[in-house]
């Protein structure tokens, strides 16, 4: 970020600010992280850039989820999904639907499952196994709460079984822990 600022690379400097804010929110500094992300997003928009807007809005919405403010994050996800459809920038689309489901769960909205199903469909269409795993974990957790343990275990087990490496990553560790819970509860 320092080099980008010194050299006048506003796009990269603002990208760094957004990502630093997201990292702070992930480390438990939600308010400061969100402040920096908003500051970075405002500066990023001022550059005239359109690329990555769905990603940045999704990360900010995720940060609002961490501080349990779904009402702040949901409009960001709607804006991000509009951008996905208007620009065709779809690499983050499945994750946006998953995040929407997570925020709807925080708001106790019954539409969360439909968001997770949409995210699964997008991830599968794109053959995006990492997004599919994250979404399957979210949906399996919801089904576990609803008493649909076998369906949850089957869904998550199928996608988890696809992976042959990376088992030390957070997403695979999370999926494995949930699978173990589901299998122990039978």
Indicate the proportion of strand residues: under 5%
Mean model confidence by pLDDT: 94
CATH architecture of the largest domain, by name, is Alpha Horseshoe
CATH superfamily of the largest domain: Tetratricopeptide repeat domain
Radius of gyration: 17 Å
The outline comes out as elongated
CATH top level label of the largest domain: Mainly Alpha
How many individual domains?
2
What is the β-strand count?
0
Order of helices and strands: HHHHHHHHHH
CATH topology of the largest domain: Serine Threonine Protein Phosphatase 5, Tetratricopeptide repeat
Q: Helicity range of the residues? A: over 70%
Tally of contiguous helical segments: 10
Biggest β-sheet: count, sense, barrel?
Answer: none
Structural class: mainly alpha
- Oligomer category: single chain
| End-to-end C-alpha gap | 50 Å
Q: Low-confidence parts lasting 5 or more residues at pLDDT below 50? A: none
Structure description:
With 186 residues, the chain is mainly alpha-helical. The protein has 2 domains: 1-49; 52-184, Tetratricopeptide repeat domain (Serine Threonine Protein Phosphatase 5, Tetratricopeptide repeat, Alpha Horseshoe), CATH 1.25.40.10. It is built from 10 helices and no strands. Helix 2 (10-26) runs parallel beside helix 4 (53-66). The longest helix has 18 residues, at 70-87. The mean pLDDT is 94.
């Amino acid at each position: 970020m320092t080099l980008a600022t010194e050299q006048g690379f506003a796009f990269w400097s603002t990208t760094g600010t957004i990502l630093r804010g997201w990292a702070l929110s992930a480390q438990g500094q939600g308010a400061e992280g969100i402040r920096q992300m908003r500051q970075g997003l405002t500066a990023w928009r001022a550059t005239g850039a359109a690329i990555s807007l769905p990603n940045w809005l999704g990360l900010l919405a995720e940060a609002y989820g961490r501080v349990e403010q779904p009402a702040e994050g949901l409009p960001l996800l709607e804006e991000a999904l509009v951008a996905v459809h208007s620009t065709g920038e779809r690499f983050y689309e499945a994750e946006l639907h998953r995040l929407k489901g997570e925020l709807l769960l925080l708001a106790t909205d019954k539409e969360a499952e439909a968001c997770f199903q949409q995210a699964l469909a997008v991830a599968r269409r794109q053959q995006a196994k990492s997004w599919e795993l994250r979404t399957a974990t979210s949906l399996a957790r919801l089904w576990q709460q609803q008493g649909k343990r076998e369906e949850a275990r089957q869904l998550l087990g199928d996608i988890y079984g696809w992976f042959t490496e990376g088992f030390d990553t957070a997403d695979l560790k999370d999926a494995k822990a949930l699978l173990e819970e589901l299998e122990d509860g039978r």
